[in-house]
Amino acid sequence: MKKVFFLFVLWFFFVPQSVFSEEIDLTWMEANSEETIIYYSSKTGNTWTPKEVVAKGYKFMFTPAVASGNERIMVVWVESNGPRNHKIFFSEKISDSWSNPKEISTSFQEVSAPALIIYNHKFHLFFAANNGDNDDIYMSSYDNTYWSVPKRIHAGNSVPDILPQPEVSNGILSVMWQSYNGSNYITMEQELLTTSKTSANRLKRKNISKNKNPSPEDLPEEFQGIGRVQKYIKTNSKTSVKLSYATDQ
Questions:
Q1: Cβ contact 31:46 at 8 Å
Q2: Burial (Cβ within 10 Å: 0-12, 13-18, ≥19) of residue 197
């Protein structure tokens, strides 16, 4: 028994502590009368990196999302060119700088709330979109050169589907989103891809009408009051995307 305990102590102190830590990537936007700026920061342990400028411009940019892994970092966001004219753009961090923003081509008039995740060494993008009717949830994947044609991830319906949040757990990529049932929004979950031989394609429902808005984040002073942020959280067993607010407002 003493030998087992001794081996555990050696393992605990000599295995890198990053094995135990939660890694968080954070992205958000700030705007003034002249321009909109997309920022990025990350946290390992208790330390946040200085915020970095991902993109800025005079057009309104909003709802940024981030994903990282395999020594790659990507941020996506929506850019408005006027009513019913929204586009998704992305930028990758290459070495120590962010690439010039590029548009992700879609055929939709309006897109909103993109969410990004890495699964099986690829970036996968989820977003809500419409062409003047109700929003549906779509998915597109990046092969390091091109984004695939967006595909709807659920059966057609006549209600709004919004706010996708993907997750990888136990080798399965799934996405949750909010779907209107005529009186309130409920959480829908779709399992999409799996690295195992188990078939994954089942739909789950649960009512979330009593859920409250996300809680304020424990962020350094310079990040306080920035409003809506999106976190990309990585642990040994799970990767998830969470919407939250770094403000008490």
A1: no
A2: exposed
Non-local CB neighbours of 160 within 8 Å, separated by 6+ positions? 128, 134, 135, 179, 180
User: Cα 202 vs. chain centroid, distance in angstroms?
Assistant: 22
Q: Which of 166, 163, 167, 170 is nearest to 186 (CA)?
A: 163
Mean pLDDT by 10 residues, the chain (249 residues): 40 39 82 87 84 88 87 90 81 91 88 90 92 88 92 85 88 88 86 60 38 45 56 72 51
CA 185 to CA 188: how far, in whole Å?
9
What are the C-alpha distances in Å from 58 to residues 34, 81, 92, 157? 6, 11, 21, 37
Q: What's the mean pLDDT when you consider all of the chain?
A: 76
Interval 97-140: pLDDT, tens:
899 999 998 888 889 889 999 998 899 999 999 887 888 999 99
Question: How does DSSP assign 149-167, residue by residue?
Answer: PPEE-S---SS-EEEEEEE
User: How far is it, in rounded angstroms, from Cα 89 to Cα 79?
Assistant: 7
How far are the Cα atoms of 57, 68, 110, 133, 244 from residue 119, in angstroms, in the given order?
31, 10, 26, 31, 22
**Opening angle at CA 187, ends 182 and 189, nearest 5:** 125
* 26: nearest Cα among 164, 238, 162, 227: 227
Q: Both tokens of residue 176?
A: 């949750």
Domains of the chain, residue spans: 21-167+214-245
The model's pTM is 0.78
Written in H, E and C, the secondary structure of 19-81 is HCCCEEEEEEEEECCCCEEEEEEEEECCEECCCEEEEEECCEEEEEEEEEECCEEEEEEEEEC
